[in-house]
Write a structure and sequence with these properties.
This protein is α+β, with helices and mostly antiparallel strands. It has helices spanning 8-23, 33-47, 103-106, 129-132; strands at 2-4, 54-62, 67-73, 78-82, 87-91, 94-95, 113-116, 122-124.
Length: 139
């Protein structure tokens, strides 16, 4: 999940640029979230103008091991509702946003985290649109 800086047309164009970068990554880069973020940062930085950025969480699910490995590039925390305890945990291993740092500085800052998932656990991913949403009844 990702979120582009800016609003309106600027934000929409940046989101499209990021989508294009992601779709053009070599397939082997999708297997490791850290490698995915490093290459996405490199390509996005070459594509967008200074001052713009994208936050993102990227994960690879391993259903046989019941694990998800994630990398977080400045995005809001990923939440997991643990069914066994009925508690929600936030996973906040933040790295820097995409498109700001040069590749040599970005690479060492991004990390992966592997999380065990039990049956019926739920992943909750969202953007700041959740925080900014307004109740239609309140105008």
């Amino acid at each position: 999940v990702s979120d582009a800086s800016g609003k309106g047309i600027c934000g929409a164009l940046l989101a499209m640029a990021f989508r294009s970068v992601v779709r053009n990554l070599p397939p082997d880069r999708y297997e490791r979230p850290g490698a995915f973020m490093k290459l996405a940062n490199h390509l996005l930085r070459r594509t967008i103008r200074r001052g713009l950025f994208v936050s993102a969480v990227y994960g690879v699910l391993d259903p046989t091991r019941h694990e998800i490995t994630i990398a977080n590039a400045g995005h809001l925390p990923m939440l997991i509702h643990h069914a066994a305890t009925n508690k929600v945990a936030a996973y906040t291993n933040h790295g820097p946003v995409l498109g700001v740092l040069p590749s040599d500085k970005y690479g060492p800052c991004i990390s992966e985290q592997t999380i065990h998932l039990a049956p019926r656990d739920r992943l909750i991913l969202f953007t700041d649109g959740v925080n900014e949403a307004k109740d239609p009844a309140q105008g």
